[in-house]
Automatic annotation (TrEMBL):
This is DNA 3'-5' helicase II. Keywords: ATP-binding, DNA-binding, Helicase, Hydrolase, Nucleotide-binding. One of its GO terms (molecular function) is ATP binding. ATP binds at residues 38-45.
Length: 480
């Protein structure tokens, strides 16, 4: 029989949907593991916080939060006795339990590269090694073949004749990371507890949020936290899986369902989006449902001219790629309207390319960008890979250069354009990847930037349109 704590019964009840009630019953009385497929705006945090109140008494409960800010939010809402941790925090605690002499050094891998390969190694190869070591930890790579697969899957810039040597260097760096246990970087907090086979702290109930965004290393660590005979409740949306480029598998939710032999519990009603917006999203995700009583809202096509004229502070402007956002943001700023592009890391990467060019003048910088883009496109085409990301970076840089009279002026423009702050009285522009988890009353989507030619591309479209609560504008490109 489904029961809940005294704290839960003392609060006035809301009208929980049939999907939410099924989740509560499963947490209270179910058997085995479960996966909650929570669609965009379906109130998953509210639902899981309520579900925690149905956990049978005297059970050790772990709630895995995706990042530190979510951990703080959930810690304030979770019932007493529920331990809320990020996986990084959980893993680091295991390392500290094994040895009190552990401290964080985010430059650990860079230092090891210097020690093993010398300071004369090019900056480009150093960065590629650093990224590959990170991906090797995320995917739990162990062999030369595993590293070769990473080089191919993630389009790392390693010439074919050098792949064997490169893979051996990566494996040697992994060994060095494992041996230097007194220092850890962010990746090590997840990887080292598994690599060292540390005895995990066990919980009888483990709730894992944002499952679709977890890489293999994170999934393994989360599963190890579950005691024998315990139960896992994983929460995620397979159609919001858009981070394959950083090690999360696009099919991670179906894989987890299969691995756990889990009961699948849908959470399909969106309390965010108006009915007309739900209809657009249902072209990709047919099981998405509008909430009872949801307003009709507005979906309309718009031209770029209308976007430039009518966008106002508080609006989102979303694109599949960055280059169109750069041009629009510069246009808004020229008109005296505050605007920013989410993604300080994007700006940092573009600035790194500018500095790598060693260009002294703007014409030199333009030539270097063209040569760099051409060589990168050729490399990717030889591997049968899509070069569109390289084209996007090159186009971003050319648009940022426009009107600049010096290379320092280009760098200053990059610094001023990109930020990590999505709040404030300004127009906020973002790629879909950067807008995930956010929402606005009105959202402009540059629809012609979306490819819609694969599951992950469809996922990007679904995530983009479901950022809108009441008003969705689908913007045609000027060329169209």
């Amino acid at each position: 029989m489904m029961q809940m704590s005294t704290a839960a019964t003392s609060r006035p009840e809301r009208n929980w949907s049939k999907y939410q009630q099924a989740i509560f019953r499963d947490v209270a009385d179910g058997q085995g593991h479960s996966v909650v497929v929570a669609r965009a705006g379906s109130g998953k945090t509210t639902t899981i916080m309520k579900a925690l109140q149905y956990v049978p008494p005297k059970k050790r409960v772990l709630m895995v939060a995706f990042n530190k800010s979510i951990e703080r939010e959930l810690s304030e809402k979770a019932p007493k006795g529920v331990e809320v941790r990020t996986l990084h925090g959980y893993g680091f605690a295991l390392l500290r339990r094994a040895s009190s002499k552990v401290w964080v050094d985010e430059n650990k891998v860079k230092a090891l590269i210097d020690e093993q390969l010398g300071p004369e190694l090019s900056a480009e190869r150093r960065d590629t090694l650093d990224r590959c070591v990170s991906l090797a930890k995320a995917t739990l790579a162990k062999t030369e073949e595993d590293v070769r697969r990473i080089v191919d899957d993630f389009d790392l810039d390693v010439p074919a004749p050098e792949v064997t040597t490169f893979a051996q260097q990566v494996l040697a760096l992994l060994d060095a990371c494992a041996a230097r246990r007194e220092t850890v970087n962010f990746d090590d907090m997840l990887w080292l507890p598994i690599q060292q086979n540390l005895a995990p702290r066990k919980f009888e109930r483990v709730f894992v949020d944002e499952t679709q965004d977890l890489n293999r290393c994170q999934v393994v660590l989360a599963l190890r936290a579950c005691a024998d005979g315990g139960r896992i409740c994983a929460v995620g949306d397979d159609r919001q899986a858009i981070y394959s480029w950083r090690g999360a598998n696009a099919d991670s939710v179906p894989r987890l369902i299969k691995a756990l032999k889990a009961t699948v519990l849908p959470l399909s009603v969106t309390y965010r989006c108006a009915r007309s917006i739900v209809e657009v999203a249902r072209e990709v995700v047919p099981d998405l449902e509008a909430a009872p009583g949801a307003e009709q809202g507005k979906v309309a096509e718009a031209s770029e001219a209308e976007l430039r004229r009518e966008a106002k502070a508080g609006d989102f402007v979303l694109s599949r790629t960055n280059a169109p956002l750069v041009q629009l943001c510069l246009s808004f700023l020229a008109d005296g309207r505050p605007a920013t592009i989410i993604g300080r890391d994007i700006g940092s990467k573009l600035a790194t390319l500018v500095r790598r060019s060693d260009a002294k003048t703007v014409p030199e910088l333009r030539r270097w960008i063209d040569d760099w883009a051409s060589s990168q496109e050729e490399r990717l085409k030889r591997k049968g890979k899509d070069p569109s990301a390289v084209r996007d970076e090159a186009e971003c840089l050319h648009r940022l250069i426009g009107g600049s009279t010096s290379v320092p002026a280009v760098l200053a423009r990059i610094e001023g354009l990109f930020s990590d702050d999505s709040e404030g009285a300004r127009i906020v522009l973002a790629t879909t990847h950067k807008a995930k988890g956010l929402e606005r009353e009105r959202v402009w989507v540059l629809k012609d930037t979306y490819k819609r030619n694969s599951v992950e591309e469809d996922n990007l479209w679904y995530v983009a349109v479901t950022r809108a609560k009441r008003d969705l504008r689908l913007v045609r490109s000027a060329a169209a």
